[in-house]
Design brief:
signal, alpha+beta, Lipovitellin-phosvitin complex, beta-sheet shell regions
Length: 309
């Protein structure tokens, strides 16, 4: 067989292409794990905005409530299996909320030392009670929470039926709030396109809200960060004996997580979610669209100390 230059180059090109493809696949596979070092402290900024648009008697009513939390996380202890005991503490709480018929929004800042009043105060003061309270969380190297230890004095304040922010004035509510913006990784190496699922449930006065998050590993960015895409679906199971009924007409959500493998932590995350609801009570119906925007990012201590205005 005669080996012509063109054929040799073609064969050589094929070998290079196969080699490059194999190399690319090898680089794409990665196992994501959190890294903990004793005494290490990180500060995160967690923002959540809840907006509602309601239609009542041909009128459109818009409202929103926004909360801005500054959270510190210190590694108290690291176990042999890579898990760690983390001390989490809310450094500062800032809130803003609108109310029907009033142009000026209500605001609250835990750094001011003043208490909020009225219905808005129930939410603000519940969050304020968590400020500078050290909550110990035992978490695995893939991000799974194994244990939550809440101070006794804080446990005494909690009551599932008492005033406050629904779902937050309970140990389970605190755990969910502090884990927002985080992610639990599979205990295996990942290729681009691999997916895994997380299911969560929240009990509300009018029913049980169930959410499913499908995570997809999207590969490494040009900045060297591992990107995970998220898609959410929410369903609602109404309580038969509730004084009012809530029906989920539609729901959708998507988000992005950026993981820094070198540091072993989430660098930033964002999640946007929309729900279309129909509320029924005493023969009246109300259509409402609820939009939730949650973002989290790693900040330096100076940003936390200065806060935001």
């Amino acid at each position: 067989m005669e080996w012509k230059p063109a054929r040799v180059l073609q064969l050589f090109g094929s070998i290079i292409a196969i080699a490059c493809t194999t190399c690319s696949l090898a680089q794409a596979q990665v196992q994501l794990k959190y890294r903990y070092e004793p005494g290490q402290t990180r500060y995160y900024e967690l923002k959540q905005t809840l907006g509602t648009v309601s239609h009542v008697s041909d009128r459109e009513i818009k409202n929103h409530i926004a909360q801005h939390l500054q959270i510190s996380t210190t590694v108290n202890e690291v176990e042999k299996d890579g898990s760690a005991v983390l001390a989490k503490s809310i450094v500062r709480v800032q809130m803003e909320a609108t109310q029907p018929g009033v142009d000026e929004p209500m605001t609250y800042d835990s750094a001011s030392g003043n208490e909020a009043t009225g219905p808005f105060g129930m939410i603000a003061n519940t969050l304020s009670s968590l400020v500078k309270q050290q909550i110990l969380i035992t978490v695995s190297e893939n991000g799974e929470i194994r244990k939550v230890d809440i101070p006794q004095e804080l446990l005494q304040q909690f009551s599932g039926n008492g005033p406050g922010l629904t779902g937050l004035n309970t140990p389970e509510g605190v755990e969910k709030m502090l884990s927002q913006g985080s992610i639990v990784f599979p205990d295996k190496p990942l290729n681009v396109g691999d997916q895994w699922t997380r299911n969560m449930s929240t009990e509300l006065p009018f029913g049980s809200m169930k959410s499913t998050i499908v995570f997809t590993y999207a590969g490494r960015t040009k900045d060297g960060l591992d990107r995970i895409n998220a898609a959410t679906k929410i369903s609602l199971e109404p309580k038969p004996n509730s004084p009012f009924q809530v029906q989920m007409k539609a729901s959708e959500g998507e988000g992005v997580y950026l993981f820094d493998t070198r540091r072993g932590c989430i660098l930033a995350s964002g999640l946007m979610q929309t729900m279309n609801l129909e509320l029924s009570a005493i023969g009246q119906k109300l259509e409402q669209t609820v939009t939730t925007d949650i973002s989290m990012r790693l900040v330096n201590p100076n940003q936390t100390a200065q806060g935001s205005n």
